[in-house]
Amino acid sequence: MFCLMAGALALGVLVRPPAKAASAGPRFVLEAIVPKSFGEWHEAPERRDFAVVNPQTKELLDKLYSQLLTRTYVNSQGYQIMLSMAYGDDQRGDLQAHKPEVCYPAQGFALHSNDETQLGTRFGPITVRRLSTSMGSRKEPVTYWFTVGDTAVRNKLEQRMVEIKLGLTGQIPDGLLVRLSSIDGSPAHAYTMQDAFANDLLDAMSTTDRGRISGLGSAVALNR
What we know:
By secondary structure, the protein is α+β, with helices and mostly antiparallel strands. It has 8 helices and 11 strands. It has one domain (2-222).
């Protein structure tokens, strides 16, 4: 693995991609492509006790990400899910997206578990991470995934492989972190609700946007 990473790094330096991958296709605007109402969910006014966790300062957020979308949604039963999407059109070096297992403890949360699993959708499974976190009486299970281009990646090695592939076509890698969380004392119940939310959200999107958000890429078109 070390040799692969070292070779990938050397190749990345030699390729020096001249253009951002984001400029290769239609303009990618989170505010426009993420609906405020879909399935049984609709956007709700953010409550202070349901505030989305974003510990970085505005200056750091502006440096790390070119777009940041945070919304709270509620269904007909009153269950609330917090959605956070952080998009960076250049994911090289220090601009690589910060992960929730780092952000939550930085905000004062205890991290109880951090597991990789599959979120099933009718377009294919998305490899996600599940976190169980808490701060005082606030229990907040989290589901998230990270994409580079239109491909979901699980680790640094997979991320680097996609970056090299983009680099060979003259593109700088872009990245998207999608995070779902809810205030729920039962992680199992929270993950079930978050999976339902994710499926409803993907169903409401166009094929192109669905591929970018899910990281399933061309698989979405084959299974629509």
